[in-house]
């Protein structure tokens, strides 16, 4: 116990904090503090604690750093709150976005995320939708394309909904909609009655939704399919036959712990059969 | 926290898949998921994994006074707990219907089948008996808890050892494991539950349903059988009508499955016994496979090994030939010789008096000798020194290496003369070559 305390007290005192730039792509642990690039230029870790907050000082125009998931601002440093790999993206000039790529199963609603939910109850003019978070989200019957007070959407309990969060914060019930800002469905709404829903880890979903994901392209070559990814770790697949749907689901689940070579091997074997 | 609801589309898909004789995980109708049994460091502790369902079993014992109506029988106690860790839907501290049902089924399966000889648990009739307590914890829930729990319970009971007890007159002595080996329980047979899930009013049947299949099923039939195909318990739930030959067929399947599982259990127990006896590593920590998502990896640097032998030969060929060595040992006094360069030996005079002690201190010296050999060996190969390194190996008498560290640590070696002194030089030369070569290889 004493050891843990000593380590904890040591890091804010300086000396232990690492520069964020040097640990990119490496594993960081909760409680660790990271220095931003501008601080490391000025006198190193020791003096960084005494400097005033630089983020909103005059330096703001030059460097603008965004804390992504797994990071929190702690004074003028970044505090790691999740265990995972540190990532960074540079939008043009300056600080850019830092976030931690972590592995988890439990979803926490985030505004703007597209998710797959299951309708659990109809009460008055709202539906309760289970999205895998700590609380069910609410969905108004008017939040569908073309829905009016007269023209109600046909949603039954147990149906799958693909929608987007408009309200998601830790103090309020999350709220979903199935239309975009122009009032169009844009792919959202009730998902068909067939097909298979299964759960994967959130890390895998992010991997699959990445713009240059090879897995999806390779899967697409196997069979014609319909697929929906929810950021809450739910995936809905539908292929022509039950057998094909099952194969696709199992492949996607297995992809998480496969290297690119192993995956290629499996895909080529499947393409032959 | 509420259970994740099952969507209509999942339900429909599962039922259609079952009609086509397909299952989500690619199993056949009568297939079990993979069963893995691992044991803890203590006796009577095990984890059983049935696919992703995991149950921890722990057996403990206590000396208590027996029940009044059964004065000569030990007491068996079973307790299954569904913690929130297994699934968020399980509420802590509340006896859910499912939990009560599972606990009663377990008791019926294990206590009422009289698989454990309770009379052997009696120490003093009417006064002291052993109470055996089996605690089962569900660590992860992916369907078919009862099968996993019954396997875990029987495995933990088979693995358990209770302290030995002796009764002399009125005196009861309890021995610690150090004094006397703990004794295993006497187990007559191993009843194991096998679950059958029925769909579409009993039209379709699946063995070992997983969590999603359990949610879709219409009815469940649990049969507890031992490997002699004796039915210990049978329970049907869910309110479906089963035909006589359906039940008969299920009992036959159960017999086959239980025979396989029993064999697996026995193999696991034997394995654990063997590892413990050999003093190898055992316990949960050893049985957990390393599944890392991220890990610090050493990048592998490609090394060209195609012509490594030729290169080594080349280097050896180009190197200077080892200098000639003085091949004759110099006799200083009786019992002491010097080979190669070095300073004068100062031990000659005291040799005689030392000799008497040599027999007694022989073992100690051997140890010193070993460590010295190692030290000097490293030095020689590292520096490639000119001196001949002698490895004293096969003299019949006591051997000794004497070093004088302050003067010239590397080079002085003295050896008590053996009958075969003459042979040493040639051997020594050979050894030296080898050493030299090794040193060369190291340097490359």
TrEMBL record, chain A:
Its main location: cytoplasm. It is found in: Cytoplasm; Nucleus, Nucleolus. Keywords: Cytoplasm, Exosome, Nucleus, RNA-binding, rRNA processing. Residues 35-55 are annotated as: Disordered. It comes from the Eukaryota. CDD domains: KH-I_Rrp40, S1_Rrp40. SUPFAM superfamilies: Eukaryotic type KH-domain (KH-domain type I), Nucleic acid-binding proteins, Ribosomal L27 protein-like. The keyword Repeat does not apply. Residues 195-242 form the K Homology domain. Pfam families: KH_6, RRP40_N_mamm, RRP40_S1. Residues 26-103 form the Exosome complex component RRP40 N-terminal domain. Belongs to the RRP40 family. This is Ribosomal RNA-processing protein 40. It comes from Galeopterus variegatus (Malayan flying lemur). The gene is EXOSC3.
Automatic annotation (TrEMBL), chain B:
InterPro entries: ExoRNase_PH_dom1, ExoRNase_PH_dom2, ExoRNase_PH_dom2_sf, Exosome_comp_Rrp42_subfam, PNPase/RNase_PH_dom_sf, Ribosomal_Su5_D2-typ_SF, Rrp45. Residues 32-163, 189-254 form the Exoribonuclease phosphorolytic domain. Residues 426-444 have a biased composition (Basic residues). Residues 349-363 have a biased composition (Acidic residues). The lineage of its organism: Eukaryota, Metazoa, Chordata, Craniata, Vertebrata. Residues 342-363, 414-444 are annotated as: Disordered. Belongs to the RNase PH family. Keywords: Cytoplasm, Exosome, Nucleus, RNA-binding, rRNA processing. It is found in: Cytoplasm; Nucleus. It comes from Galeopterus variegatus (Malayan flying lemur). This is Exosome complex component RRP45.
């Amino acid at each position: 116990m004493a050891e843990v305390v000593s380590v904890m007290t040591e890091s804010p005192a300086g000396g232990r904090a690492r520069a964020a730039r040097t640990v990119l792509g490496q594993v960081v642990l909760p409680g660790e503090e990271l220095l931003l690039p501008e601080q490391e230029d000025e006198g190193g870790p020791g003096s960084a604690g005494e400097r005033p907050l630089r983020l909103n000082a005059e330096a703001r125009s030059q460097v603008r750093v965004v804390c992504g998931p797994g990071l929190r601002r702690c004074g003028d440093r970044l505090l790691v709150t999740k265990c995972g790999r540190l990532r960074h993206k540079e939008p043009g000039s300056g600080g850019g976005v830092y976030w931690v790529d972590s592995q988890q199963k439990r979803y926490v609603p985030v505004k703007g995320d597209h998710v797959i939910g299951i309708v659990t109850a109809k009460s008055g003019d709202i539906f309760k939708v289970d999205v895998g978070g700590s609380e069910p989200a609410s969905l108004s019957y008017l939040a569908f394309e073309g829905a009016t007070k007269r023209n109600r959407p046909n949603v039954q309990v147990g149906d799958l909904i693909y929608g987007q969060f408009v309200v998601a914060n830790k103090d309020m019930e999350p709220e979903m909609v199935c239309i975009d800002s122009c009032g169009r469905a844009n792919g959202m709404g009730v998902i068909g009655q067939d097909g298979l829903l299964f759960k994967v880890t959130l890390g895998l979903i992010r991997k699959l939704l990445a713009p240059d994901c090879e897995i999806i392209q390779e899967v697409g070559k196997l069979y014609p399919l319909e697929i929906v990814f929810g950021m809450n770790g739910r995936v809905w697949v539908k292929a022509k036959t039950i057998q094909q749907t099952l194969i696709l689901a199992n492949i996607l689940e297995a992809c998480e712990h496969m290297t690119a070579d192993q995956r290629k091997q499996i895909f080529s074997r499947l393409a032959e059969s | 926290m509420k259970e994740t609801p099952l969507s209509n589309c999942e339900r429909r898909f599962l039922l259609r898949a079952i009609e086509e004789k397909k299952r989500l995980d690619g199993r056949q109708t009568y297939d079990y998921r993979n069963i893995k049994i691992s044991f803890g460091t203590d006796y009577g502790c095990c984890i059983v994994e049935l696919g992703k369902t995991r149950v921890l079993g722990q057996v403990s014992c206590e000396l208590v006074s027996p029940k009044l109506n059964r004065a000569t029988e030990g007491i068996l106690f079973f307790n299954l707990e569904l913690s929130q860790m297994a699934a968020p839907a399980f509420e802590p501290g509340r006896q859910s219907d499912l939990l009560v049902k599972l606990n009663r089924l377990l008791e019926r399966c294990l206590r009422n089948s009289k698989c454990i000889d309770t009379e052997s648990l009696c120490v003093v009739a009417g006064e002291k008996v052993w109470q055996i307590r089996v605690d089962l914890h569900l660590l992860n829930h992916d369907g078919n808890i009862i099968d996993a729990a019954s396997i875990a319970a029987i495995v933990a009971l088979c693995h358990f050892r209770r302290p030995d007890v002796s009764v002399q007159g009125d005196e009861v002595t309890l021995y610690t494991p150090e004094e006397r080996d703990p004794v295993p329980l006497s187990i007559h047979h191993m009843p194991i539950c096998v679950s059958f899930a029925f769909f579409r009013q009993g039209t379709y049947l699946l063995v070992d349903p997983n969590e999603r299949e359990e949610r879709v099923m219409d009815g469940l039939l649990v049969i507890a059988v031992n490997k002699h195909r004796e039915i210990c318990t049978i329970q049907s739930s869910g309110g479906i009508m089963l035909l006589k030959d359906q039940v008969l067929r299920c009992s036959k399947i159960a017999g086959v499955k239980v025979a396989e599982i029993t064999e697996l259990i026995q193999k696991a127990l034997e394995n654990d016994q063997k590892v413990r006896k050999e003093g190898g590593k055992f316990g949960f920590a050893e049985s957990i496979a390393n599944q890392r998502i991220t890990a610090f990896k050493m990048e592998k640097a490609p090394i060209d090994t195609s012509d490594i032998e030729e290169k080594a030969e080349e280097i050896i060929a180009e190197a200077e030939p080892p200098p000639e060595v003085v091949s004759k040992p110099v006799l200083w006094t009786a019992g002491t010789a010097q080979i190669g360069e070095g300073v004068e030996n100062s031990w000659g005079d005291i040799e005689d008096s030392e000799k008497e002690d040599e027999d007694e201190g022989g073992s100690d010296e051997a140890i010193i000798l070993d460590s010295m050999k190692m030290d000097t060996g490293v030095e020689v190969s590292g520096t490639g020194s000119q001196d001949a390194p002698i490895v004293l190996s096969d003299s019949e008498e006591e051997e000794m290496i004497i070093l004088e560290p302050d003067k010239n640590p590397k080079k002085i070696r003295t050896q008590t003369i053996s009958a075969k002194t003459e042979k040493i030089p040639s051997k020594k030369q050979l050894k030296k070559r080898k050493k030299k070569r090794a040193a060369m290889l190291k340097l490359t």
